[in-house]
């Protein structure tokens, strides 16, 4: 596995998925090596490797600097057609460590976790005969086009249009590269969009897989609720900030009219200083030591996302804990849970507020929805089933 970020500590969706992948492959009896980028934003050291993986998985932790400068940003905009983010992750030291690993070990499959790891396709093909698979966590171009659509500042809008166009050209180009042998998509929607864009590589849809059985042992709603309405997510990710701000500005007052004493809890790492200050009934917790324990103590989970892309792991985890969830259509992208049965989907401020109020007023509806959500997650996002599906895909690639 060639990873754009560390799988440990598993504090965000992508890290959780990589951790579960490593664990599942080991449990199925495969030899696994992981080379990863440890950055100033996402840092990992040898001490972060869990005990259960020591001696079973070979880790290569490469400390890299992906920080951007204003000059680098300007130079890329004026003199390059590549997305600036792709250039940031093209790092000579990482390339050299990857070369050394490929020369010292042989592999059947090399899985790239993250689009920008495709910067190393030529290096991998030069030093290995393994089949190369890209696990596409989302469609990057879509994130930038959506950010542009919601941007009010004209200059930023122009820049985001350029960045989105570059990502589109780059992404479709990567997915059709000769060196690439297959693609793992995390949603059927992404796979369909790739096909419509002319991507001809073998593609499999393998949703995010998590060990939902363990999280599903938590108490279902209403139970002992410490955080009656809550949001949890990385607050250094722009779509999360935009979504929570939308909820606070457009929805929250409507909910408080019905429940004036209600507290909305916001948790997440890298919380912006002063976020939500002065807003009545809002308590910012920041980073929590154990995200699952925080969620287990929660009532109604909110996912008010307006931009971004890919499937939301935190929603899956919340559903697995039998939490009733109110989410926007975009937040549920790639997650086929049924509206009104396993989740409440609402896109307007009025509808979103009504969804929250309904679940707070009627505990029976909330409980039934939480139980249905848990059952759905246990079946649809079952780690064992998804792992076997991916392994079958890999066996077919290596046998051809």
Could you state the CATH homologous superfamily of the largest domain? Glycogen Phosphorylase B
SSE string, helices as H and strands as E: EHEEHHHEHEHHEHEHEHEEHEHEEHHH
CATH structural fold name of the largest domain:
Rossmann fold
Radius of gyration: 21 Å
Count of domains: 2
Second rung of CATH, namely the architecture of the largest domain: 3-Layer(aba) Sandwich
Q: Report the count of strand segments.
A: 13
* Percent helix range: 40-55%
Shape: globular
Distance between the termini: 21 Å
Biggest pleated-sheet summary: 7 strands, parallel
Mean pLDDT: 92
Number of helices: 15
Low-confidence stretches: none
Structural class: alpha/beta
Strand content: 15-25%
Spatial strand arrangement across the major sheet? 3-2-1-4-5-6-7
Just give the CATH class of the largest domain. Alpha Beta
Structural account:
This protein is α/β, with parallel strands linked by helices and 400 residues long. The chain folds into two domains: 2-209 and 382-399, Glycogen Phosphorylase B (Rossmann fold, 3-Layer(aba) Sandwich), CATH 3.40.50.2000; 213-380, Glycogen Phosphorylase B (Rossmann fold). Helix content is 45%, strand content 15%. It contains 15 helices and 13 strands. The chain has helices spanning 13-27, 70-79, 84-88, 92-104, 121-127, 140-150, 154-175, 188-196, 212-215, 238-258, 291-296, 313-320, 349-361, 363-380, 383-399, and strands at residues 2-3, 32-38, 57-63, 109-113, 131-136, 182-185, 203-205, 227-232, 264-267, 282-286, 298-303, 325-327, 344-345. The strands form two sheets. The protein has a seven-stranded parallel β-sheet with strand order 3-2-1-4-5-6-7, sandwiched between helices. A six-stranded parallel β-sheet has the order 10-9-8-11-12-13, sandwiched between helices. Strand 1, helix 1 (13-27) and strand 2 (32-38) form a beta-alpha-beta unit. Helix 6 (140-150) runs antiparallel to helix 7, helix 10 (238-258) packs across helix 13 and helix 13 packs across helix 14 (363-380). It is globular and about 65 Å long.
């Amino acid at each position: 596995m060639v990873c754009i970020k560390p799988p440990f500590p598993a504090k965000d969706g992508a890290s959780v998925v990589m951790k579960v992948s490593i664990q599942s492959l080991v449990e199925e009896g495969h030899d696994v090596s992981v080379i990863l980028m440890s950055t100033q934003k996402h840092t990992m050291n040898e001490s972060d490797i869990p005990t259960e993986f020591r001696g079973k998985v070979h880790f290569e932790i490469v400390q890299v600097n992906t920080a951007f400068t204003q000059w680098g940003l300007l130079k890329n905009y004026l003199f390059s057609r590549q997305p600036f983010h792709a250039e940031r992750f093209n790092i000579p030291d990482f390339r050299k460590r990857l070369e050394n690993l490929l020369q010292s070990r042989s592999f059947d499959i090399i899985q790239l976790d993250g689009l920008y790891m495709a910067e190393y396709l030529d290096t991998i093909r030069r030093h290995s005969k393994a089949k190369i698979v890209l696990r596409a966590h989302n469609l990057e171009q879509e994130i930038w086009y959506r950010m542009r659509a919601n941007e009010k500042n004209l200059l930023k809008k122009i820049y985001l249009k350029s960045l989105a166009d570059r990502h589109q050209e780059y992404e479709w180009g990567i997915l059709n590269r000769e060196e690439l042998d297959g693609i793992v998509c995390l949603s059927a929607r992404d796979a369909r969009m790739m096909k419509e864009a002319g991507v001809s590589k073998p593609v499999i849809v393998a949703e995010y897989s998590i060990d939902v059985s363990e999280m599903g042992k938590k108490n279902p709603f209403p139970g002992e609720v410490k955080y009656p309405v809550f949001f949890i997510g990385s607050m250094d990710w722009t779509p999360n900030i935009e979504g929570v701000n939308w909820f606070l500005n457009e929805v929250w007052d409507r909910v408080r009219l019905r429940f004036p004493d209600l507290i909305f809890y916001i948790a997440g790492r890298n919380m912006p200083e002063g976020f939500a200050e002065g807003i009545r009934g809002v308590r910012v917790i920041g980073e929590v030591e154990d995200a699952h324990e925080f969620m287990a103590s929660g009532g109604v989970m909110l996912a008010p996302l307006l931009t971004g892309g890919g499937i939301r792991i935190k929603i899956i985890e919340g559903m697995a804990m039998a939490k009733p969830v109110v989410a926007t259509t975009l937040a549920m992208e790639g997650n086929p849970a049924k509206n009104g049965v396993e989740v409440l989907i609402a896109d307007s401020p009025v509808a979103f507020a009504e969804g929250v109020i309904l679940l707070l007023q009627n505990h029976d509806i909330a409980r039934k929805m939480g139980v249905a959500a848990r059952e759905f997650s246990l079946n649809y996002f079952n780690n064992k089933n998804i792992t076997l599906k991916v392994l079958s895909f890999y066996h077919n690639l290596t046998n051809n």
